[in-house]
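Hi Y.,

Following your request, here is the sequence exactly as I used it, all 558 residues.
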Amino acid sequence: MTHLDKILKSRRDTRHFTNDPVPDAVIQKALQAGHWAPSVGLTDATKYYLVKSDAIKKAVKELFLDYDTKAANQTDSEQQKEDYKALKLEAIEEAPLGLVICYDRSVLNNFTIGTVGSNEAIKFSAVCAAQNIWLSLTEQGFSMGWISILNYYQFKKLLGLPEHIEPLGYFCVGKPATDYDNQPMLQQLNWKQKSDVPFVEEIVVSVPFAKAIDEKKQFHPETASIKEVLQQKMDAKTKPLGSLGTLEKLALQIGEVFQTVTPKIIQPNIVVFAADHGIAAHGVSAYPQDVTRQMVTNFLEGGAAINVFCKQNNIKLSIVDAGVNYDFPSNTKLISAKVSKGTQSYATGPAMSRGELNLCFSKGAKIVNAVAKTGSNCIGFGEMGIGNTSTASVLMSLLTAIQLEDCIGLGTGVNDATFSAKQKILKTAVENYAGSAELEEQLAYFGGFEILQMAGGMQAAYENNMLILVDGFICTVAFLIGYKKNPAIIKNAIFCHCSAEQAHAKLLNYLEVDPVLQLGLRLGEGTGCAVALPIIESAVAFLNEMASFESANVNNKL
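Below is the corresponding structure, written out as tokens. Let me know if you'd prefer a different format.
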């Protein structure tokens, strides 16, 4: 045993060798000792490759020199950098024999006992073999030096190793030229001192195992704070706190809406409501009123932007005739919810009756309830209607008390003359309003069929606990109406983008919400919802699928 202790103690990471060759019997005995080392599951995963070629040694040396420079630059201390450069850390060309010790990852293709907790157990087995080889060489009067300062990808490529063979490093083998004063070389050179005795501590108290979150459990506000649990789950992901920005806010909101830490977006739908507006007859738009009918036909034929984006992102699309000034054929794939063939012009009187107003809310709710019954839990709202930016501008001003001129924008892109006329027409219409400030009366006087149907639909979406995807300016005004009737719906709403319509940013600020996207969109149709949905789904994906620091064995603290 005394002899064994001496061998163990004299085992050195050798960097200085004599020119004496390594006899075949010596290396074979050492490799046999490596083969006798314990291996997880008796896998025989350790492989050995011998290098005697001077050309290969030279190529390996060049790899070392390249990485050695990078290693030296890891320290900011100039003195330590100089001390490092003075060290002899390899003897690749001087050693008579090179040895590459590898482990074979392909053994994991079969059931391997002992690797369930960590696939790296096969690597640890290879390290045991390396240690046995080292001890055998020491006992025979030879030694070995481990070179790991290499680009392993290039190293494998240089040696022609298969993808599934992973090297521990390059080992220099030969007869040692020095005993380093019977101590490790780095200790001899005062780089670092090794402690005389090992660290040993008995564990006498166990730490209770933290139970994983039951990710199928449904949380209820009265018994648990789902928000806190979701935040803890996000903070435990392998990322700096808050580093996914808006995605984290979305994940938190969606988890709270569905009251689960594993939310899913199921069968997303976008519903586009179309209607005509009497105010369009006063030239407030760059397009004639008939474009509403033409665009609905385009939707039905699949040629509009919303069709393209819904197809791209696997979103079901529905088109609603809420009040277009046209009789569509009965055989079209169109949801008929027509209240009338367009509203009246609020420049001369009420846009609709109280009965028509109530009909808008009920028809919009009915459409969304039907979508919810299909199993969908996510609905986006879009619109089409020549003149509807004018209607939305007036409603925004009335419901928020923001000056009307700050609520009027270019709409479909009118020129300066038309814009100026639009402002005068709308201002005059509001000034001529003699009704009360009661919400329902204002909505009936200035409303639009598609805007009010969207408002009713958004209320129904909230009652069905669906995610409400809000498109641009006009849809946000529809949401504002629903919000005035029930402020709680804002918990379910995701505002997909901030449009180029100048009033939209002001309205989002009024609601104190942040949009997902800033793309300068001003098309309507629900296009912002369709484009934003993949980002919203990314928030759900990272929450459900991204590893935690614990599960990935990644350290989250210094």
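DSSP finds 19 helices and ten strands in the chain.

Thanks again,
Q.
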